[in-house]
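Please, structure for the following, as tokens.
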Amino acid sequence: MTPLECRAERQKVRFRIRENLDQRGLSMLEIARRVNLNKNVVVETIGGGRNNRRVLAELRAVGVPEKYLFDPDVLKNKAA
């Protein structure tokens, strides 16, 4: 899966990611603080506009299921 395809797939499940964060009592701002990035980077990554590695890694670390992340690096390694 290409990085562009990953972004498109994540855009389709962005509400699942946000729901998952809500269930854990986490906001996108909290994720941004944890990875020392601007909240907009988190919003764009969750929304499918970016593939920020730090954001995707933190989402994984807090328990967002891999099936929602569509991380191009992870998918590339699985294909190899």
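DSSP finds seven helices and no strands in the chain. The chain has one domain: 3-71.
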